[in-house]
Amino acid sequence: MSPNPTLNNIISQHAEEAAFLWHQRDAAVHQPHYDLEDLAELDERIEAHLDGLRLAGDAGWEIAQQALFWQEQGEIFTAAVLAFESHQTERIEAVLELGMTQPELVRGIISALGWIKFDKIAHPVNQFLKATDAEQRSLGIAAYAIHRVNPGQHLDHAIADENLNLRTRALRAAGELGRQDLLPKIRQQYQADDEATRFWAAWSATLLGERQEALENLKAFSPSPFQAHALPILLRSMDATDWLRTIAKTPELLRLLIIGTGIIGEPSQIPWLIQQMEKPEMARIAGESFTFITGAALDDEDLADNEPEGFEAGPTENPEDEDIDLDPDENLLWPNPALVQAWWNKHQTQYHHNIRYLVGKPITTEHCQQVLATGLQRQRIAAALELALMQPDAPLFEIRAPGWRQA
């Protein structure tokens, strides 16, 4: 490392900022106020700090390697990018030695592999696929999947592997890659003992065009720890009328019902959504579902309101308050129910019942592609799923990829 303390301080700042911005980006890909342009700008900032480390040469790597001590995903990502770009075995092994110890740290490695162009990582990733260690093979499958490149027979074998992480990652990859040829092997996992195996088998089979049996299996995961992944594909693939009626009987599931209503996209539910906007704890998520269906952005249409006086969400300053969960709607606007109702009275004739809408228009291939280009991240996630369900032999669009690659 250079003995120049000023230079070292600058290099350290590059490492710290790259890791910090990665954490910001990791959240941003699922945030309701980011679009592709915002994501690309954030990616450019990360890339600028990575460039600073690259230009620093060995000193940049040494500082990034020292930061691995903190065992944080952003630091793992930063060091992994430098390591894999260097093609130096000892650097890659240093990242793997620490990064493979915890599942959450593996995400940092996978993110780095997704950041770098595929042809630059093809050799080490292919070595992972051939490794005797199942966790490294899982890393290889994940790297191929995040680039939407087909790993061929390696995926076929991994779907039935005894290692749980490898098997579930392979099942998920099959759906992401549009591998309809693997449906027979995926079906064999419907009755697996492990819950994660059963879920990702049903998830991928649904994406790949199988409806009846796969959907029946997928229904078992609502509610469950897999609910956040299950609902978006489940409600887009079936007649959700019965689901709505069942959920509506349980007051504790009101938030889930509001989110599901936005996923289904039926305009007849707009009056009910406007009623939910009167409830402070549900107002913002109801506003997002309203926009999901109508395409009317609260800020663009002057339908937004101020936060209700006295409302608190997320952790409070009260030391006796045991609720430490963050506000799930922090980045959503507050709707003004009266203004939203007036807007709906004026525009409702433009929408037709029994037709599903996404961001203001009936769901078609062309419209979903437009939403991918111009929509907010959650809307883009929805558009990607809709496209995959309409084209089950095509890969699921990767909305988490670097912005320049998506564009």
Task: Kindly describe this structure.
With 407 residues, the chain is mostly helical. Helix content is 61%, strand content 2%. The protein has helices at 5-28, 36-55, 58-66, 73-86, 89-99, 103-115, 118-129, 134-146, 153-158, 164-176, 183-187, 195-207, 212-219, 227-234, 241-248, 254-264, 270-276, 280-294, 337-347, 365-374, 377-390, 403-406; strands spanning 304-305, 334-335, 357-358, 361-362. A two-stranded antiparallel ribbon has the order 1-2. A two-stranded antiparallel ribbon has the order 3-4. β3 and β4 (361-362) form a beta hairpin.
Structural class: mainly alpha
Give the biggest beta sheet: 2 strands, antiparallel
What's the structural domain tally? 2
Distance between the termini: 38 Å
Largest beta sheet: what is the strand line-up? 1-2
Number of strands: 4
Percentage of helical residues? 55-70%
Oligomeric state, counting identical vs distinct chains: single chain
Strand content: under 5%
> Helix-strand pattern, N to C?
HHHHHHHHHHHHHHHHHHEEHEEHHH
Mean pLDDT across all residues, rounded?
95
What Rg do the Cα atoms give?
23 Å
Can you count the helices? 22
Low-confidence stretches: none
Gross morphology: globular
